[in-house]
Amino acid sequence: MVRHRFSAEDFHRMGEAGILPEDARVELVQGEVLEMSPVGKRHVYALNALLDLLAPLRGQVVLSVQNPLVLEPETEVYPDLVLLRPPREAYRNRLLEGKDALLVIEVAESSLDYDLRVKVPLYAQAGVPEVWAVDLARDRLQRFLEPQGGAYLRQEVLEEGLVEVFGLSFPLKEVLP
């Protein structure tokens, strides 16, 4: 089997040329175009709850929802939510990059294994300081901290209680549908 690897630039040209349908939910991961899982109602609820709960951080961070995040020349993913370094104007004429992210949040039900096995290590390689995987199948939050050498040195699993980020705290149960 022959595999064709693409760069992020190739990926964008395919989209512009109409090779990728406009409504396609795809990511570029290490040169391969991969189809993403469909978004269900629990996913939508959790993402909207996170947006509402994190809204008070506006000004301290830039909230970016399901937008491209370039991690390396052949990897462009679409995390559910990214908290970026301000100011917002810094991103006016370029795509977001891993170095811009303060926190990446993936909301997952059927895609959890892929997010943990593939995307979390990619975020660590890109130096993203913190990643959350909101596990809708088990009603919990997995936090990954301290990236080093393509892995995170610390992992926490929260099943209840308060979630704290950048001086803001909220009950985990408010995120889970």
Largest sheet entry: 6 strands, mixed
Helix/sheet category: alpha+beta
**Tally of separate helices:** 3
Portion of residues in beta strands equals 35-45%
Instruction: Note the overall shape.
Output: globular
Number of strands: 13
The helix-strand sequence is HEEHEEEEEEHEEEEE
How far apart, in Å, are the first and last alpha carbons? 42 Å
Helicity range: 10-25%
Low-confidence stretches: none
Mind telling me the C-alpha Rg? 16 Å
Q: Mean pLDDT score, rounded?
A: 87
Enumerate the strands of the largest sheet in spatial order, edge to edge or round the barrel: 3-6-8-9-10-11
Keywords, separated by commas or semicolons:
177 residues, alpha+beta, six-stranded mixed beta sheet, 3 helices, 21% helix, 36% strand
What does this structure look like?
This protein has 177 residues and is an alpha+beta fold. Helices cover 21% and strands 36% of the residues. It contains three helices and 13 strands; from the N terminus they run αββαββββββαβββββ. The chain has helices at 8-16, 41-54, 112-125, and strands at residues 26-29, 32-35, 62-65, 69-72, 75-77, 81-84, 96-97, 101-108, 130-135, 140-148, 151-158, 162-165, 168-171. The strands form four sheets. Strands 3-6-8-9-10-11 form a six-stranded mixed β-sheet. Strands 5-4-7 form a three-stranded mixed β-sheet, covered by helices on one side. Strands 1-2 form a two-stranded antiparallel sheet. It is globular.
